[in-house]
Specification:
By secondary structure, this protein is an alpha+beta fold. It is built from 4 helices and 4 strands. It has one domain: Alpha-Beta Plaits, CATH 3.30.70. A 4-stranded antiparallel beta sheet has the order 2-3-1-4.
Length: 115
């Protein structure tokens, strides 16, 4: 019985983890995510993406982009339709790779700006 209760609590924790993440993303103001200051090396890529409407869209796009070795962080603003990618120091990420990742995640790239 003790194992069953432990398993139940573990399953409950994993079931509601995406919900907690979604609430955390929603609680951040859009300006916090969008108005990142570029560093001196220009490692910030800001892509405008059409089709993102929910937190699951943001999670799926983040998962696909984080598979790229050069990607350090991904921050998404659903309201502004922006994806802000920080590239690891000493590495680069081409526009073609970003465009392909966004396409494979199921979204349309509207434009890319580099800082």
């Amino acid at each position: 019985m003790k194992k069953l209760i432990t398993f139940g609590l573990t399953a409950l924790t994993f079931t509601f983890s995406p919900l907690a993440l979604a609430q955390e993303v929603e609680s951040r103001p859009a300006t916090e995510i969008v108005s990142m200051e570029p560093d001196k090396e220009g490692r910030i890529i800001q892509a405008t993406v059409n089709g993102m409407v929910c937190d699951f869209c943001a999670q799926s796009l983040t998962k696909v982009l984080m598979r790229e070795e050069a990607v350090e962080t991904v921050q998404i603003s659903l309201e502004a339709q922006f994806v802000t990618i920080t590239v690891k120091e000493g590495m680069s990420l081409s526009d073609e790779v970003v465009e392909k990742a966004i396409y494979w995640a199921g979204y349309d790239l509207a434009g890319i700006e580099r800082a």
